[in-house]
Amino acid sequence: MEARWRDIDFLLQRPGKLVSDGFEPGPEVCSAAQCVCLVIGSSLSLQLREFLRDFKILVIGAGGLGCEMLKDLALSGFGNIDVIDMDTIDVSNLNRQFLFRMHDVGKPKAQVAAEKIMQRIKGVTVTPHYGRIEDKDIEFYREFQLIVLGLDSLEARSYINSIACSFLEYNEDGELDMSTIKPMVDGGTEGFKGHARVILPGFTPCFHCTLWLFPPQVTYPLCTLAETPRSPAHCIEYVHLIQWGQDREGESFNPDNPEHMTWMYEQALKRAEQFNISGVTYSLTQGVVKNIIPAIASTNAIVSAICSLEALKLATMCSKGLDNYMMYSGTQGVYTHTVSYEKDSSCMVCSPGVPVEVDSSITLQEFIDMLLLDARFKDKLSKPSVSFQGTNLYMQAPPVLEEMTRPNLQSSLLSLMGSKGVLNVNDRKLAGVLRVQVAFRNVPTPMAV
Amino acid sequence: MAHANGGSGDEQKKAAAAAATRSNKYDRQLRIWGEHGQGALEQASVCLLNCGATGSEALKNLVLGGIGNVTAVDGGLVHESDLGNNFLLSAENLGQPRAKSMAALLQEMNDSVLIDHIDASPESLLDSDPGFFARFTLVIATQMRDRSLVILDEVCRRFSVMLLVARSYGLTGYVRISLREHAVIESKPDNTVSDLRLHRPWPELTTFVEEFNLETEDSLVHKHIPFAIILLKVCEEWRSKHGGALPSTTKERSEFKSLVASKKQAQDEDNYKEAVAAASKVWSPPSLSSEVKAILEDGAADVDSSSSDFWILVAALKRFVASEGGGEFPLDGAIPDMHSFTEYYILLQRCYQAKAESDVSAVEAHVRSILSQLGRDPDSISRAAIKHFCKNSRNLRVLRYRSLAEELGLKEVGAKLQKYLPFEGDNTNYAIYLMFRAVDRFAEEFGRFPGAMADETVEEDAAKVGAIAHKLAGEIGLDGGVSEELVYEFCRFGGGEIHCVGAVVGGIASQEAIKLVTKQFTPTAGTLIYNAISSTTTIFQL
């Protein structure tokens, strides 16, 4: 037994009685979630340690959560970690992103984080990717056995969620091929509060199933901003959203440009003075315009560790997994609440298919037109391509394929599919695939012989 | 003073640049606890006992946050197993003192913090030099056993030093604050209900409201009257028709809302929509929490010359409530945003702020009078402090903690734990509490934790520690036993410190420390058990 891993090996190398017991959905996921199902047992010895060392895991974000997650995963035995982040290091990161120092300011977070982890923890390989998550090919994400998210935006989470869910494969009966599940662990924090959740697409709710968990953004009515401001924030947002465009037409506002921010502050102050409103400060101006979320080391450390522990449990089944959402609040004592949310069975992103009922006579062209008008897919489709069980029915691109599949547009959808079933819809606007469960009305019954 | 070569000008520039960097570095946390909170952190002196995964994580967070100074205490040397769970120790530290080794990387994380180390065990310090602990604001004791904790607690209380106990054990952990009394003025609850006093307007507010006319024909004015004014006017109308009473029955409340809605002249009048939505504020003004009521009734509010400023302020508050306040607390003065002309809103705001200010003056008079009566300097509490207190008076908190000797001696613990059983359901966090006591007793007897040796002893140890746990449960009169699975799990843990669990427990400990030092937000009142198997926490008040 490697002496270094003494404490965690008590967990990994000994059978337990509270392991994956009551963890939904049970042993089938075990075989799916990480290719090789290693049941904790006497034959284990060094296998699990090696398994973790080579386990391909991706950390998205190398900021407040990401730095902590990299440390936590490495000190849990994961030896093959990739990390992606598009940002560079800023001074305001240093109160919590402990892998960075003053002299690192300006450098890419992913790169410095990877270096620091490898420096301090021997035997772990951390591969950095400095760039946007959208710039990676979908195949990049397919390679990982587990994805851990340390993000700070709805949009980024939504994107990764779509990618992970697009790997799911359902058969005609809507049954999931378990080996296509791409497990994710997602963490988020704000001040003293945070959450950790486990997403097993197809089983637990995906991010889209529970979009309602995220409170809507605060926006102010235009007439308030323009005519009747009452608070310092109103004054700031007026300058931000209206006055900048008027006074500095054509110039794109850059919140990291001190001159831009100072101008914003001074104009907001002037406006506030006009209306006898007090309270506009440079700090508030920054906060409103950049939508700054207060952040501290402790909450990030707590949430990241919970997430990393779940990643370890998913990979090794060494204990019961979180099922499936834990919220944390540290302002009034410590309060946590663990709840098992249910997935949306007709979720646009993770379900076997969003139900659509059409007349049996409908053509493929008419079907596509209908999709574009469907309120559920508002703004999510522009030029959809349709395929069925691996066969392209209509492809918008490339030109060669488009020409080949164009005749299908005039065929009846029912004749193309043969019977009801699930269509895969792809679109430039979609990060993943949209599955549509088509049911036909007025299907002519076969003539009696 | 100024040198010919402009030296002090350079120094000033340097100082200004350093201040700007500091504000920038701490920006994301200044937005939470403000400069005064940050100042309190920078003045604090913290002692960490034991530099394992849990302790190092707790300290890391505090150092990153800019704590004033820290002293790490540990009697051990860096071992191979430390490299598997402790980020602050690396291969080049092997064989060297743990405290000293940890201090080095910690310093890199924030050069503003003064970091010291003592290469001795906490137990030996307690034995040879308990006075050592007197210099600290807070002691964070990690991975210590019950017996030593009881001694440490007694020492800390003797010197009025705050104590925070944190421990992780396999996939479980706990955190417990221990001190006599912690008073919080700025508890900053998540949801504050604004105090509009619609049910009891004061004379100046009533006079101000008279300027407005809900029947005005000026449609622009009509749709920009703030909802508070609409409600106050409708209240007046209601009272005149109901012998001075406010709506009390469900029927009356419904009628009142209809009356408010009837004042609308056009569809797009958002202020009337707001008024209808806020109508319940008239008959359900914000109530006082049970915690605040208890503070007013607390024995410490009968002040004497040794009373703290906090209790003097509470005593003054009580007098205010009984006289000028007429049963009400000092007005906070903040009002929510309301659809309105800027001018009307600002004037309304000033009306509320003026009343808040005059309440502060009344409380101030009581403060000065009480201080004089007690033979203390009547100006020893500033108006700013009194104002701060008044603004937060509805959210005061006082926490008191039983000594560890009493709790860990398990006096009354059984009866108290028993109360939680019906709520625990599948959670067996109360059993985890028991297991911590059981493993420590096992360690006293056998010189090691159960399961700490080779795998073969796990079953044997489980039988032994299970027997201890059951005996304990019997002694303290607890019905619920400890399940066989949980006993086995504890043996499986082998007393090990898992990094992730240490990071959670240490993280929570650092957060509690920040709340204690800044005196903002509410620290945890009781023993927090963290169960990483079920991903749950429970707080037991024992």
UniProtKB/TrEMBL annotation, chain A:
Span of domain E2 binding: 356-441
Positions of the catalytic residues: 223
Keywords: ATP-binding, Ligase, Nucleotide-binding, Ubl conjugation pathway
GO annotation, biological process: protein neddylation
Pathway annotation: Protein modification; protein neddylation
Catalytic activity: ATP + [NEDD8 protein] + [E1 NEDD8-activating enzyme]-L-cysteine = AMP + diphosphate + [E1 NEDD8-activating enzyme]-S-[NEDD8 protein]-yl-L-cysteine
Gene3D superfamilies referenced in this protein's UniProt entry, alphabetically: NAD(P)-binding Rossmann-like Domain, Ubiquitin activating enzymes (Uba3). Chain: B, domain 2, Ubiquitin-like 2 activating enzyme e1b. Chain: B, domain 3
Gene Ontology molecular functions: ATP binding; NEDD8 activating enzyme activity
SUPFAM superfamilies, alphabetized: Activating enzymes of the ubiquitin-like proteins
Keyword Ligase in record: yes
PROSITE patterns cross-referenced by the UniProt entry: UBIQUITIN_ACTIVAT_2 (PS00865)
Enzyme class: ligase
EC numbers: 6.2.1.64
Family matches, as CDD domains: Uba3_RUB
GO annotation, cellular component aspect: cytoplasm; nucleus
InterPro entries from the UniProt entry: E2-binding, ThiF/MoeB/HesA, ThiF_NAD_FAD-bd, Ub_act_enz_dom_a_sf, Uba3_N, Ubiquitin-activating_enz, UBQ-activ_enz_E1_Cys_AS
Similarity section: Belongs to the ubiquitin-activating E1 family. UBA3 subfamily.
Task performed by this protein: Catalytic subunit of the dimeric E1 enzyme, which activates NEDD8.
Protein name: NEDD8-activating enzyme E1 catalytic subunit
TrEMBL record, chain B:
UniProt superkingdom: Eukaryota
THIF-type NAD/FAD binding fold domain ranges (all copies): 26-536
Coiled coil: none
GO cellular component: cytoplasm
A GO BP annotation: protein neddylation
Pathway: Protein modification; protein neddylation
A GO molecular-function annotation: NEDD8 activating enzyme activity
CDD domains: APPBP1_RUB (cd01493)
UniProt keyword terms in alphabetical order: Ubl conjugation pathway
Keyword Nucleotidyltransferase: no
SUPFAM superfamilies: Activating enzymes of the ubiquitin-like proteins
Tagged with keyword Transmembrane helix: no
Stretches for region Disordered: 1-20
Family from the record: Belongs to the ubiquitin-activating E1 family. ULA1 subfamily.
Function: Regulatory subunit of the dimeric E1 enzyme. E1 activates RUB1/NEDD8 by first adenylating its C-terminal glycine residue with ATP, thereafter linking this residue to the side chain of the catalytic cysteine, yielding a RUB1-ECR1 thioester and free AMP. E1 finally transfers RUB1 to the catalytic cysteine of RCE1.
Protein name: NEDD8-activating enzyme E1 regulatory subunit
Gene from which this protein is expressed: AXR1-2
